[in-house]
Amino acid sequence: GGGYITNEQFAARYDAVSPGLSERNNILMKGAGGSEGWGVGAGIGAKLAVGEKPVIGLVGDGSLYYADSGLWTA
Known about the structure:
- By secondary structure, the protein is of the alpha/beta class.
- The chain has helices at 14-17, 38-50, 61-67, 70-73, and strands at 4-8, 27-30, 55-59.
- A 3-stranded parallel sheet has the order 2-1-3.
- The longest helix has 13 residues, at 38-50.
């Protein structure tokens, strides 16, 4: 536990993707509205910020289409 999860999944909740994530003392970062495409940058930024702690970035295929160039940074 003790990791970070960025969630840009619109069709599936993070606990549906991996049951129990919310029960493991993780920090969930999710959008409260706005545009698609922020998940890639959020995941990379979270990893840069927290160092050795694990980061899981949940990004749907449509959202990845808007920000796939962020993977070049990684």
